């Protein structure tokens, strides 16, 4: 099966400032990919490159096996919802569906009308008068009714209250099941990613810090606790992600593909949020040294 997203040495600069540096990814189709990182990490740049809104400064990127936005057929294969779930304030809900039908050759009008009814949107209501949650549902419906093979979301729920966020993610999961679509979802809300994502990409300082299947990553990441000095030397196959020390004790987050050090007194697997925060903390500390 063709990967949903492939990059090799992908680099994007704005003037002399790198937004992405030497990014190499190979993400299988059929995944819900969580893309996470601090502000300025390069998340939006990567998604805009994948959507064809930007072109690389160096390296390559292929989406569903082809150049992003290479032609009308490729554009139809990808649904993109940018930050702030953009809709046209002066158009009604029904106008958005009619516009979607005119612009998209695989438009599924029945699906769009059904989902609008299910989430309680008034077709005659102008988008500018909808709540944030309602605008998000409208943007999601328009993107999904294209019948794409890939849905890309850039911080779609950041401004929503918890109930609206939950409703949006629930509807997203329903679309994934119904359309058998791949998803790349950028978010700062780690608990939301933990609920829905099965593949993870962590970006910081324009570079990939870690990526892989969530299940595999959780199996290979540990929090180790030992006496101060006992964990100073790690065996081959154990990568230090982040360390904290007191006078008597060391606490390490590691990625271990082999056996753990014998001096470990206590080892726990991390949850997804703690694992992500360990990589982001490592990057933040390194950037300030």
Automatic annotation (TrEMBL):
InterPro entries: AAA+_ATPase, ABC_transporter-like_ATP-bd, P-loop_NTPase. Signal peptide: none annotated. It holds the Pfam family ABC_tran. The keyword Nucleus does not apply. Residues 5-230 form the ABC transporter domain. Keywords: ATP-binding, Nucleotide-binding, Transport. The keyword Nucleotide-binding applies. GO terms for molecular function: ATP binding; ATP hydrolysis activity. This is ABC transporter ATP-binding protein.
